[in-house]
Fold:
Amino acid sequence: MKKILLKIFVLLLVLLIMDRLFTYFFTKEIFYKTMAGESGGSVNYLIQKKQHVSFLILGSSRAKHHIDPALLSNVYNGDGYNAGINGTGGLIYNSLLLKLLIEKKRIPKLVILQVDAYPYFTMKDDNVNAEISPLYPFIDESPALSNYFKEQTGYAEKIKMWLHAYRFNGKLLNIVYNYARRNSVTNNNGFEGLAGQIDTTGSFVPVDTGKTFHFSEIKMKALQDIAQTCKLNGIRLLLLLPPSYKNIILLKPGNDAILSLLHSNDVYDIFNFSDVGTIPALESNLYWRDQTHLNKEGAAIFSVVFNDSLKSLHLN
Amino acid sequence: MLFNSIIFLIFFSVFFFLFYYLNGTNRKILLFIGSCLFYMWFIPVYVLILFLTILIDYYAAKKIEDDHSQKAKKAHLLFGIVNTCLVLFIFKYHNFFIDNFNALGIQHLANWNIILPIGLSFHTFQSLSYVIEVYRGNIKAERNLLTYANFVMMFPQLVAGPIERANNLLPQLKNCDHAITYKDFSVGLHRFFWGLFKKVMVADILSIYVDATYNNYQLHSGSTLLVGTLLFAIQIYCDFSGYSDMAIGIARMLGFKFKENFKIPYFSKDITEFWRRWHISLSTWLRDYLYISFGGSRSGKWRTYRNLLFTMVLGGFWHGASWNFIIWGGINGFYLSLEKATGLSKYKPVSFISKGIRILYVFILISFSWIFFRAVTFKQAIEIIKKIGFDFHAGSFQFLDINVFSSIVFGILLMLGFEYFVFRNYTFDQLYERKHGDRILAAFTIIFIFLIIFFGNSNGSQFIYFQF
Structure:
C-alpha cells in the first residue's frame, strides 16, 4: 500500500506543480495578450484597451451579431463595445461580466442589454457552470465572480477548479489562435457580422405560446442584479429585444414578465423589436443567416433602425 | 454513477482503500454493497430487478447441476433462459411489440410508461451465458450466492460490460483473497485514464458536432451529414471502448483481470476482422450461443449466410428495441455473408497502400451502418442517406463551431496517434514491463489528465451504451 500511496502522491504533486507553472506562464505570456475571441480575449480587450468605453452592449449571439456599435451614431457617437457572446451569453454571464468590469474601473455610461424571453422560460436546468465558465480565467481578479462561483456551483466543479488549468477548459485552441493573430486585431468593437443566408426549405415552427412556461429563477435574479448594478454605479440601462425570423422565438408572455420585472427596478428604456413586423424590411429571408440570427446585411439594417429609435434619448 | 464523474472518483477512492485492507467474505460483502450503491445511483428500486435475475439463474444453474436426468436439466435451463429473457422483454421490448401490433392494426394496446433499467441487456447476457455454460458442463454451478451476485453485479462491468464469462471471472471472485499488487494498481490506473481521455476528450466533444447535425438533419447539407456520420463512427468507438478501458482499469486496480473488449477495430482490413475486434465480449457471445446454436458454418454455405444474418439481426435487436437496430444488425450480417461468399477476408493485403484501401473500405461500410444506429427513426436514417447521396455539395459543408471542430480534429489525431504508435504494438502490461515502463505510463497519464482538463467536455455526459 505504501508504494501505491507514494505513486498517487507523486502523481498529484507533479500534476499540481505542472498545473501551477503552466497556468502562471500561460495566463501571463499568452492569455493576457489575446485581444479578441470568446475565451476571454474580448474581456481582456475591454480591460486593457478600452479604458473609456461609453456604452457597452451585453447579451447573447443575438447581440453580438446584430448590433454594430459603429452604426449607433446617436449614442455617444458610436463609442461602444459589443460584448455579446455566443452560446452561453445568458444573463448570469452578463451580470458577472458587468461586475468584473466595474471592479476593474471600466464603467460605461450606458449598458444596452439584449434579452430574449424564450431561453429563460424554457431552460429547466440552470446550467450555471456553462454560463460562467467563459469568465473562469478571471476568477482570481473578481471577488464578485469568485463569490458567485463559491455560492452557485456544485462540489464537482469546485474540485475540478483545484487544478487552475481547468479555467482554460475548452478555450485553449481558441486562445492560442487569438494569440497568434493578436497583431492583426484592429478597430475592434466586438461586433461580428455573419455571412450566409437562411435555407428556407426547412420547416419553421414558432415556439408554442400556449404552453405554460416557468421562468428560471436564477436567471431572473441575474437580470435584477444587472438592473441594480447599473443603478448603483450610475449606469443607464437600456433593454433591447431583437426580432427573429418569422417570429420563431417570439414569446409575448415571457417578454411581458421581463418588462414588468425591469419596470419594478426603474428600467423604462425598452426597445422592443421582438415582433419582426416592427421592421418590415427584415421580414425578407435575404437578411437572415438562420432562424434567430441576422446576417451582416440584416444586422446593418437592424443597427440603423435601432440607432434611429435611440435618437429620442439625446445621448450624444 | 458515471465513471467520468467526480462522485465516482470519491466513491472509488474510499472503496479501494476498504477493499485493499479487507479479505475473503468481508471483501465479497464490500464488493456487493459497493455494486449495489453504484447501481442504485441511477434508479434505486431497479436493483430489485437485478436481484430477481440473479436469483433465477442462481437456482436454475444449481438445479441443472444437481439433477441427473437430461430432461430435467433441459427444463431448468429453459426456466433460467425464459425467465431472464422475460425480464428483458418486459422492460425493453414490450413497448416495441405493442407499437408494431398497433401499427399493424392487430391490437390496440397502450404502451407501458417504464424507464429501461441501465445495462439490463449486459447483465442479462452475462447471466444467460452462465446458465448455458453450466448446462453444457463447461463450468460448475456457483454455490455461494454472494459470489454469484458479485459475478453479475460487479460494478466495473455492471452497466456496459465487458460481458464477462463465468470461467474467467467466477474463479477470481471465489476467494477474493488475492493480493493487490503495485503493478495491478499502476496498470489499472493508467488504463482508466486512457479510457477517460477517449471518453471525455474525444467522444464527448464529437457528440457536440454529431448531435448538432443529426438532431437538425433537415437543416444540414449532405456533406455536413456525411462528416457527422463519419465522426459518429469515431464517437461511438471512443465512447464505448473508453468505457471498456475504464472498466478494465478499475477491475485491474482491484486485482481482477477482465477480457479485452476492443482491439483497435478501425484498423481492420475486412468486416470479419472488424467484428473480431469490436465489442469482443458481445461478438463472442453471439458466436458461441447464437451462431453456433443455429448450426454455424457446418451445414453448407447458404445456411452459413443465413446463420450470420440471423445472428447479426438478433445482435442488433439486443442493442435496442427499434427497427433501426435490427436493420443495423442486418446490414452487418449482410456484409459478413458477402465477405464469406467472396472470400475477401482470405486475401490479406500486403502493401501499405492496399492495407490503407482496405481499412478505408471497412471504415466506410461500417460508418454507413452506423447511420441506422444513430438516427432516432427509420425515416430520419433514410432522409440522411438521401441527403448524403443526392444533396451532396462539398461547398455547403458547415464546421458549425470552429472552436469545437478544431478540438475534434486535435482529439482524433491524438487518439489515433496513441492507438497506432503505442497501443497497437504494446499492451499496458507490456509497456509496464519495459525499462522505465511505469514512468512512461505515468507520463502518459499526466498528459491525458491535462488534455482532459484543457479540452474535455466537463459536463459528465452519459455513455451511449448505457441505454442498452
Remarks:
- DSSP finds 18 helices and no strands in chain B.
